[in-house]
């Protein structure tokens, strides 16, 4: 199995809830699947970002 680790992703507070983080994460995951053939991703989140990562 091929695993990828997403250790840190941050969007400034004034740019949050505009979809930038979601688009960035989706692009990153698609690139990792297409180029590196990754099948699993491990992420870390602080308590304020848990909801975001659950949606991912």
From TrEMBL:
GO terms for biological process: positive regulation of transcription by RNA polymerase II. Residues 1-56 form the N-acetyltransferase domain. Gene3D superfamilies: 3.40.630.30. One of its GO terms (molecular function) is histone H3 acetyltransferase activity. One of its GO terms (cellular component) is histone acetyltransferase complex. Keywords: Nucleus. It holds the Pfam family Acetyltransf_1. InterPro entries: Acyl_CoA_acyltransferase, GCN5, GNAT_dom. This is N-acetyltransferase domain-containing protein. It comes from Nymphaea colorata.
């Amino acid at each position: 199995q091929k695993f990828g680790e997403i250790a840190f992703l941050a969007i400034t507070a004034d740019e949050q809830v505009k979809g930038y983080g979601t688009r960035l994460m989706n692009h990153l995951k698609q690139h990792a699947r297409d180029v590196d053939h990754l099948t699993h991703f491990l992420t870390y989140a602080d308590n304020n970002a848990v909801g975001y990562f659950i949606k991912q």
